[in-house]
Amino acid sequence: MTTTPMFRLALPVRRLALAAAVALSVTPMLVSRASSDTPVAKRNETTVREAFQRWAAGASIFPTLLAPDVVWTIPGSGPVAGTYRGLTDFSERASGPLLSRLATPIVPQVHHIWAIADTVIVRFEASATTTAGHPYRNQYVWILRMKDGVVANGEAFLDLGAYQQVVDDNPRRPR
């Protein structure tokens, strides 16, 4: 069966919507068990919010927000889906293939941040321009487990089709 480009994009978008729905539906249950007004939750929310503000202003946040031994998982199917162990592994195999094909920095626009004890959930969209001059836009839900002020475990839900299209259709930036 031949799939149309619209169908290929529809499945990842549905997965992203499902991930967001799960995150949003679980939040009230978690809040009842551990209030987001706890000092730990507030501190974690502030850490993540400030990191995203720096990112929106053009700074790289991964070296300061992620622990050196972070475990980062991207659920789904496709070349980038999988679990990355350590900041170097994540940078080289997950974010590197995308970032090397962007002519401009990714600019996030946060829609909401939820913090419950040591877990912070961020729903945002981000955009950039590819090396071929095309727009890159994606929507994300990140679930971050914090430890000692940095992300120890992260799970990123995004449209993997949009990610892969940038990697497949754009040349790497010259080094």
Notable characteristics:
alpha+beta; Nuclear Transport Factor 2, Chain: A; 32% strand; 42% helix; 6-stranded mixed sheet; 175 residues; 5 helices
Word description of this protein:
- The protein is an alpha+beta fold.
- The chain has a single domain (5-169), classed as Nuclear Transport Factor 2, Chain: A (Roll).
- 42% of the residues lie in helices and 32% in strands.
- It is built from 5 helices and 6 strands, in the order H-H-H-E-E-H-E-E-E-E-H.
- Strands 2-1-6-5-4-3 form a 6-stranded mixed beta sheet, with helices on both faces.
- The longest helix has 29 residues, at 5-33.
- The protein is globular and about 45 Å long.
What is the CA–CA distance across the termini?
Answer: 40 Å
Low-confidence stretches: 29-35
Number of helices in the DSSP assignment: 5
Tell me the fraction of residues in β-strands, as a range.
Answer: 25-35%
- How would you name the oligomeric state of the polypeptide chains in this document? single chain
Order of helices and strands: HHHEEHEEEEH
| Class by SSE composition | alpha+beta
Q: Give a short account of the largest sheet.
A: 6 strands, mixed
Overall tally of structural domains:
1
Within the largest sheet, what's the order of strands? Answer: 2-1-6-5-4-3
The CATH architecture classification is Roll
Shape: globular
Radius of gyration: 16 Å
Domain SnoaL-like: 49-151
Signal peptide: 1-34
Pfam families: SnoaL_2
Keywords: Signal
